[in-house]
């Protein structure tokens, strides 16, 4: 029965190009930020942080004006839906959601907030030697030290959130036999008949929005 249902599913567009590019670019930039910090490539570490900040601001705005399943309103669920979804977790059959499931939606929001905190505190951070964030001069040394501490330990929180996110994806892959990775490359997800394709926003609009965010970050760091 499950195999028959699987065969009846069809590939439906769910993830737009901006969401997919954001996802994988953020993965690479977080990895590079970790590496550049370890290697003491602090100039590149800062550039990576600025880029991440622009991307996060873009993704937050895209969560209000983007395509159907990119919007926060599509994947932030109420308590009843969340509890109902949690009850389905032990089942080998995946509950079908065109976009993020209720726990996945929480994960997305937490990671966005955590990365925003990481990039934001980095603007004010210092290492007590030579490196200072571009906004260090606008705050007291005591406040900068406090934000530096948050910047340091928040990265561990981010790693934990990423770990949980990866574990959930693997759980779905091996326990529920649903590949959540492939749709983040192709933009299409296997869904039951009758599933409605997402309403996509134009890539040109996303480019303009990203440009506005990048310009805002540039103005901020050069203030």
What report would you give on this structure?
The protein is mainly alpha-helical and 223 residues long. The chain has one domain. The chain has 9 helices and 2 strands, in the order αβαααααααβα. Strands 1-2 form a two-stranded antiparallel ribbon. It is globular, with a radius of gyration of 20 Å.
Summary of the model, kept short:
By secondary structure, the protein is mainly alpha-helical.
Strand content: under 5%
Dominant shape: globular
Biggest sheet descriptor: 2 strands, antiparallel
Radius of gyration: 20 Å
Low-confidence regions: 1-5
Structural class: mainly alpha
Rounded to the nearest angstrom, the distance between the terminal CA atoms is 62 Å
Indicate the percent of residues in helices.
Answer: 55-70%
Domain count, please report it: 1
Widest sheet: strand order? 1-2
Structure summary, number of beta strands: 2
Number of contiguous helices: 9
Order of helix and strand elements from N to C terminus: HEHHHHHHHEH
Mean pLDDT: 93
């Amino acid at each position: 029965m499950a195999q028959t249902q699987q065969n009846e599913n069809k590939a439906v567009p769910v993830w737009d190009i901006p969401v997919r590019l954001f996802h994988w670019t953020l993965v690479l930039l977080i990895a590079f930020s970790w590496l550049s910090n370890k290697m003491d490539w602090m100039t590149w570490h800062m550039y990576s942080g600025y880029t991440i900040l622009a991307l996060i601001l873009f993704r937050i705005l895209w969560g209000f004006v983007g395509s159907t399943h990119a919007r926060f309103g599509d994947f932030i669920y109420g308590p009843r839906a969340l509890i109902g979804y949690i009850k389905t977790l032990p089942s080998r059959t995946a509950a079908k959601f065109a976009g993020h499931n209720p726990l996945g939606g929480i994960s997305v929001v937490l990671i966005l907030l955590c990365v925003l905190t990481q990039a934001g505190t980095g603007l004010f951070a210092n290492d007590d030697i030579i490196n200072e964030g571009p906004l260090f001069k606008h705050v007291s040394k005591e406040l900068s030290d406090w934000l530096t501490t948050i910047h340091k330990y928040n990265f561990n929180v981010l790693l934990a959130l990423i770990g949980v996110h990866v574990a959930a994806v693997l759980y779905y892959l091996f326990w529920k036999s649903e590949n959540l990775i492939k749709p983040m490359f192709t933009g299409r997800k296997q869904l039951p008949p009758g599933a409605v394709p997402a309403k996509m926003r134009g890539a040109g609009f996303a480019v303009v929005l990203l440009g506005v965010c990048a310009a805002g970050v540039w103005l901020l760091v050069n203030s």
